[in-house]
Amino acid sequence: MRRPALYSRSSRAQGAQADAPEAPGAASGEATAAPARRRLRLSAFHLQWAAMTLLAVGLAVALTLALRPGAPRLTQEDIDAAVVRTLETTVLPSPAASAVANVAPSVVRVMGFVRNSPERRAAREKEEKAEQAARGQRSGNSARREGRNSNPPLLDPEAAAEATAEFLPNGVGTGVVIVDKGVILTNLHVVSGSDQIKVTFADGLETTASIVGVQPENDLAVLQAHKIPDDLQAATLRSTADLMPGEQVAAVGFPFGIGPSASAGVVSGLKRSFRSPEGKQEMSNLIQFDAAANPGNSGGPLVTMDGEVVGIVTAILNPTPARTFIGIGFAVPIENAAQAAGMPPF
After folding, report:
1. Same domain, 151 and 207
2. Which pTM was predicted?
3. Beta strand pairing status for 183-187 and 220-225?
4. What is the rounded CA–CA span in Å between residue 179 and residue 231?
5. Residues classed as catalytic
6. pLDDT digits (tens, 9 = 90+) for 4-33
């Protein structure tokens, strides 16, 4: 007879056990106890087999974990050695380079233009003729000394183009974006008297702009660009409350229209006063610095080594008519500039 599966409740198994003949001399209790003993023996066997299986699996897992290499434990000496090795093998950018890179997307070139009226054309033609006569006289004197004839000077192609242009350049300077909607800070003297203002952003976009605010006592003007780049970035402004002499700064701008150009130096003084060469205006509470600045830097940002704007370059000190940098520049503190733009103080 086929033995039924363990724990089977099938009626077939129960019927088979009922039809089995009773063994001679065996009591009915013994006949029913035998299958129970068999079930108990089978249960103990399976429990032992399951325990051995679990033990084997546990040993295998433990062996795998023991043989797997663990992550090394870092010590402070390991970290210091890694830092030293990185400093020895990696060339880090200078602080000034990082500062300029941070503020560069916010620096713009500012140009002022005046309308080319008949009066201006006449005055310009007069200046051109006087300059040509002077060049011709110098050339003639040189030719006579060399014993040869001289030809009259040719008209400068750029001057000829400007003679028919609607607008003439009136000055070049720098500006810095302080609000990403196209709000720009610059010097008032850069755009004063201009009939048209153009700004060129860091990505090359050129557009016209309007003056929306002025602060004459600090030589500041606020411009609103008529078009802006999609990814325009505004500069970060920093209070000058904790600015100290000796702190490193960089000036970014368009000296003589060349740029963007950068120079670096230190804050050489605070709360300085400056009177314009014409004596028309005196400004106070200025930041004195020694980073090179020249005509065209006016209106540009003076930034810390974090690339944060602490001032707007406004003037250079030069007691000679050369109008070039000799080591002393001045910037309006950003607190004054922010007030000119209608921004709350720090």
Report:
1. yes
2. 0.65
3. antiparallel
4. 12
5. 189, 219, 298
6. 433 334 444 444 444 444 444 444 444 444
Looking at the 3D structure of the chain, how many domains does it have?
2
Say if 318 falls within a structural domain. yes
* Residue 118, preceding peptide bond in cis (omega within 30° of 0): no
What's the CA gap between 315 and 118, in Å, rounded? 33
Q: Is residue 321 part of a domain?
A: yes
Q: Which of 87-101, 151-165, 186-200, 304-318 has the lowest mean pLDDT?
A: 151-165
Separation in Å, CA 149 to CA 135, 138, 145, 153, 330: 14, 13, 10, 13, 51
DSSP string across 261-328: EEEEEEEEEEEEEEE-TTSS-EEEEEEEE-S---TT-TT-EEEETTS-EEEEEEEE--SSTT---SS-
Task: Give the model's pLDDT for residue 256.
Answer: 93
> What whole-number distance in Å separates Cα of residue 198 and Cα of residue 219?
19
Q: Do residues 258 and 194 both lie within one domain?
A: no
CA 176 distance to own-chain centroid: 14
What domain range is 143 assigned to?
104-225
Indicate whether 196 and 142 sit together in one domain.
Answer: yes
Among candidate residues 205, 185, 209, 187, the one with its CA nearest the CA of residue 196: 209
263 and 160 together in one domain: no
pLDDT tens across 108-145, in order? 999 999 988 777 667 767 777 777 777 666 556 555 55
CATH number for 283: 2.40.10.10
Average pLDDT, the chain: 78
Whether 192 shows a pLDDT value over 60: the answer reads yes
Q: Strand, helix or coil at 336?
A: helix
Higher per-residue pLDDT: 130 or 231: 231
